[in-house]
Amino acid sequence: MPRIKGRLEEELNKQLNSELYSAYLYLSMAAYFDSMNLRGFASWMKVQAKEELEHAMKIYEYINDRGGRVKLDAIKAPPTQWSSVSEAIEHALRHEESVTESIGRLYRLAKELGDEATEVFLHWFINEQVEEEALFSDLLNKVKAAGEDPRALLMLDSVLAGRK
Are 29 and 88 in contact (CB under 8 A)? Predict the structure, then answer.
């Protein structure tokens, strides 16, 4: 199989670093929830952070498998504070939507460059993003339904603690 093309390698490296930022963002959200004593929300975000690291490693391995060179960049500091649980989850959903756009751009580039292997590789990420957006959208709907009722939020927190 031919070596990955320079421009595509560069964009895959950007996506790898973006996935690392996602993990960093979700760890920051976990810390925010821990500070509010919402251990279930924190646990849920820690699981999400681990998934993002797995996504980054998939890209890492793919770049290496195709004879490319992984290049890690500095990861910018994520926000550490939100005005509410709802705002934090909405931020996460918007972030996932931006990741979906980024994966789409990568896919179109692979197609433009005639790199079928990368197109096929990216199918998994495209499907994963559908799941990610649905997951966060569902969580946001539940948080909004709980509203300002602390009992409802604590019940939801208890449910979220069960995510493995």
Answer: yes
